[in-house]
Amino acid sequence: xxxxxxxxxxxxxxxxxxxxxxxxxxxxxxxxxxxxxxxxxxxxxxxxxxxxxxxxxxxxxxxxxxxxxxxxxxxxxxxxxxxxxxxxxxxxxxxxxxxxxxxxxxxxxxxxxx
Length: 114
Known about the structure:
alpha+beta
């Protein structure tokens, strides 16, 4: 019998980590507009989601937007930035990199984030 234990959220320096990710219900065209802002005027470093770069795959608007939103949020939240992007994003304490690993390796359906 195999047991899979998943710990949601990580405890670091007295606080849970948070990630800013694209909302699953947001249409791709809205995600693209929000990502364009984040990578442009917003100041997110989107170089790693360009072709032939380490975070290009998976190559979806939703995954690239999540990367851009989170980069922006992590850089600027201490200055009052939010994870809103015209309602295209949300905060989660589930590490997206670990969720992708679990989905790919254990064929699990993605969690529903409310």
